[in-house]
Amino acid sequence: MVQFDNVAVRYGYGPEILQDVSFSLPAGSFHFLTGSSGAGKSSLLRLMYLAQRQSRGRIVLFGRDIATSRRYELPALRRRVGVVFQDFRLLDHLSAMDNVALPLRVAGASENDIRKFVPDLLTWVGLADHLHAKPPTLSGGQKQRVAIARAVIGRPDLLLADEPTGNVDDHIAMRLMYLFEELNKLGTTVMVATHNENLVSRLPYPQLHLENGQMRRG
Amino acid sequence: MFSRHSDLPLEKDATSRFLPWLVAPMVFLCAVALAGVFILSGLIGRWDRDVSGTLTVEIAAASGDARESAERTRERVDQAVALLNGFPGVANARALTQDQLVALLAPWLGNSELLRELPLPALIDVTTRAESPPDLIALTAKLAQTVEGASLDDHRVWLSRLIRLSRSIEWLAIAIVMLIGGVTSATVFYATRTGMAIHQEVIEVLHLIGAPDDYIARQFADRAFVLALKGGVVGLALTVPVLMLIGMTARRLEGGFLAELSLPILGWLSVLVLPAVAALLAMLTARMAVHRTLARLL
Ligand SMILES: Nc1ncnc2c1ncn2[C@@H]1O[C@H](COP(=O)(O)OP(=O)(O)O)[C@@H](O)[C@H]1O
Ligand SMILES: [Mg+2]
Prior knowledge:
Chain B: The chain crosses the membrane at residues 21-44, 171-191, 224-246, 266-286. Chain A is of the alpha/beta class and 218 residues long. Chain A has a domain at 92-150. Helices cover 33% and strands 25% of the residues of chain A. Chain A is built from 7 helices and 10 strands. Chain A has helices at 41-48, 74-78, 96-106, 111-124, 140-152, 170-185, 197-202, and strands at 2-10, 16-25, 30-34, 56-61, 64-65, 81-84, 158-162, 189-193, 207-211, 214-217. A 6-stranded mixed β-sheet of chain A has the order 6-7-8-3-9-10, with helices on both faces. Chain A has a 4-stranded antiparallel β-sheet with strand order 2-1-4-5, covered by helices on one side. In chain A, α3 (96-106) packs across α4 and α3 (96-106) packs parallel to α5. The model of chain A has no long low-confidence stretch (mean pLDDT 92). With 298 residues, chain B is of the alpha+beta class. In chain B, strands 2-3-1-4 form a 4-stranded antiparallel β-sheet. Chain B folds into 2 domains: 10-49 and 159-297, no CATH class; 61-148, no CATH class. Chain B contains 11 helices and 4 strands. In chain B, α2 crosses α9 (213-253). The A-B interface holds A 49-53, 71-72, 74-81, 83, 89, 91, 93-94, 98, 102-103, 105-107, 111, 150 and B 5, 7, 9, 201-202, 204-213, 215, 295, 298. The structure holds adenosine-5'-diphosphate and magnesium ion.
């Protein structure tokens, strides 16, 4: 599903934030990505959701070498990846429903399908009463659930979550993790970046740990 | 096209709201220039018909006593006929005989015996090729240079000059129309870029969610289309009364070539489609601007 070989990242002419990172995510796997703040977790995820290019090394996503793919082929790959951004990145001028509908619209789904699936999913994440609310009127936890709904509405093959439990208490964090587990059971490959050791220790999934630009298996 | 879904809050952009106010005067100017082109080409067509067909070259009688004069005039006539027959666009040049000349003048001057004594100018009848008429201005110059006392029909030459001038003005008007299109397009281009900068975050999210470039470009293009169409319709609303006024004034003047100052059907049509053309131009430009900007992203 995802294969990294000796991948490095640097910003501008700065030092390499990641060096010789090699790992693979088998289809249907669930991994934690751990490391202290500034270790490069977000950078690694950005490579995976094609927001950024590696400065060297090889990345193969869904069997496609990213470096040799044509630019117009990338949107289709991105649509197979669901992302829960660290800062949610909801569109403030759109309702919760329209935010969640975005991946479907972008993929060219009919408005009929959108009206059928989106309210169901929002109900499932407990936002049945907030379908038409705009993000600025939602609490942090509610925004997070909208963000997660948006990430999973398109039934992605790969789900990436960047510190999705960053600003909620442990109780809610565990509920979110169960949600990801459910998706994983349905076949989605999951990677959750977090520095919440407590969370990682309570779940039986392998972790990939970033430290000093290197990756090691924990 | 108007009800298509848009994820970008483009309606609230201050930068794009000025677009109709740019397009309206542009469409107005364009319409006036276009009307000018059509009216001019109508005039040119008519004048062209006037200068084609036959024309007359006059050879002034040479000085000297009657015999000497007649002989030298004849030489000049032969020279002119030879030149004319060799000139591109001339089908046939033929000197009028003395009898024909006298017959021509008799209705005015009466006594034909007396006429024969006078040093009459000679006349040459020139038939021109309808499909490729001669360059009268060049011909005049050539005649004046080679044959003493030769002159071409003044009115025709003057008309030729007028046609030449009008053609230049016509090209100028076409250049102005294109320039207006270019300026409008450039403005839409930069307005679109500004709009993209304003909505950078939304665009980035759409991009990361997997929107193809055209999904984003289309939203800007649709918006530009609607705004330019609005402006174009306003511009057209300003133009129509102005053109009708010009047409009415021309008709009241009647006579002369001013009668041709009203716009032909094709002219009206091309003026009427200007708002749509402006809207399409704005749409294509906005689309291109977005594609070019997005091409810099991964
Ligand atoms: N856009 C950027 N430009 C320059 N440096 C960056 C950029 N993004 C991240 N970095 C740097 O890269 C390092 C890793 O950042 P990040 O990937 O966000 O780590 P984490 O998500 O683990 O906190 C940090 O030192 C950060 O300052
Ligand atoms: Mg981070």
